[in-house]
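Render Sidoreflexin in 3D.
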Amino acid sequence: MSGELPPSINIEEPRWDQSTFTGRANHFFTVTDPRNILLSDAQLEHAGRVVRDYRQGIVPPGLTENELWRAKYIYDSAFHPDTGEKMILIGRMSAQVPMNMTITGCMMTFYRTTPAVVFWQWVNQSFNAVVNYTNRSGDAPLTVNELATAYVSATSGAVATALGLNALTKRVSPLLGRFVPFAAVAAANCINIPLMRQRELKVGIPVTDEEGTRLGESAHAARQAIAQVVVSRVLMAVPGMGIPPFIMNALEKKASLKRFPWMSAPIQVGLVGFCLVFATPLCCALFPQKRFPSASELRTYSMPF
């Protein structure tokens, strides 16, 4: 191996210790960096070439460790970890903050009329379906029918929840009405994610030991993993959909916003974006991405694992 880097850098794992919350948070702040969506195809391909060459023992002269890790995270931000395929742009983790801040901000601004509720809940669930499909396990691909069922079910659930709660909140404080989009998003996540990953629930996800030896597939492990995804997705929405309503409720009583009502949407989008910049990586870091089952756990798994 030529070059300045030692052959012992393990780029198959994140740069930071994933057994700690801090290490996982550092990892996801890098993974969700919105600047990565601005990278060109040439930059992505260059990063992929650096990573693939290093795996084969080829190091370009002058390549530093920081540059290697940068290339690794650029590569991971755009290519599926299981299949190696380039992911759809809006389905990448780096698109989470800009896409969610725009959609969520609009959901929370235009929530008073039925057409607006239906439209923005449909947009949100369409985006969620793309994200869940893009980041699905490469070992359990979805069929077109399964994808369609998950999409229609989640969209219907979100719209029904939003419209039902909107009708109830007409008799209470206007502030409560601002939390209807969050309730709809939480309900839809509980529907969308399990349905989008239903094949994993049926056939299981791969179970390996700490050396990477594949032991089989486990539906039990899939249920645990999907439950953690649901929890993290719901909690991820809490700051962005829980804090701005109080701020906007106060601002809309001010003369400036009454005079320029068109400012509500951009202000709300900005508030949501600020919250999501921190909430997205921190909530992704709540649970380890990999967990090795103990011998006692393996014995409790029913076949297939």
